Amino acid sequence: MAYRPSFYLEIGRKARDLLYRDYTEQPPMHYHYGCCDWSYDLALRSQICRSTSHEINDNNQELVGEHVPGISAVLRFIVPDPLSSKVELRYLRDFLGITAGIEGMTTNPVMSFSGVIGSSVVSLGTDLAFDTILKNFTKCNAGLSFSSPIVSASLTLEDKGDTAKASCFGLINPLTSTAIAAELKHTFSQNETSLTLGAQHEVAPLTVIKARGDTTGKVGALFQHQLVSKIFLTLAGDVDIKELKTSPTIGLSLALRP
Fold first, then answer.
1. How high is the mean pLDDT of the chain?
2. What's the pTM value of the predicted model, to 2 decimals?
3. Which of 103, 196, 204, 207 is spaced 20 to 30 A from 93 at the CA atom?
4. Rounded Cα gap, residues 18 and 15, in angstroms
């Protein structure tokens, strides 16, 4: 619906996916990548119900009450990284999107919360995380987003205000998934600014190529093919052209995406 925003994770996501997803080098906060290894990233979703009573019928099927509009529960686990497991409640309605969860199935988990207000076109939100061991906030982010069917842009403040990012995404041809993206990043504590540019194109049915480069001299590319429904095979590589004596990073992954 036009009146409903998305959740905080969706702020800047189109540009972030094009520039970083499935590459061998990517922000650790957003993706899980197995380099020459097997990894699984699964999400199980179920609806929260008004009725707290459950019963099993003759066919061993669970009967539940009427769904509460806008509320869902998400269980997320990554193999072989159980510390990345997450349980999260999500609530979405007109002009509001909220998440609250627990990260890491341990005796001292990280508590997370995010909230977004606005619509599907313009939204403003915040993302917080509290470490129960350190007794402080490990994440305090804020973001502003503009989105349309072909163009989206975002402005975020991350790392407790130390990093500012501005990103944009443009869809050139929907038939071939041809798109471009850019991200401008500035770190205040180090007084460093970098620009990352990237593009993608579907060269054949179910086959996509992507390339990116940034002002620090890092260049990357990947080839991805969908083998069957929801199963993707990716070959990716990154190289630092300023350090040609070092070996490039090459990775092969097989991913299942629900």
1. 83
2. 0.81
3. 103
4. 5
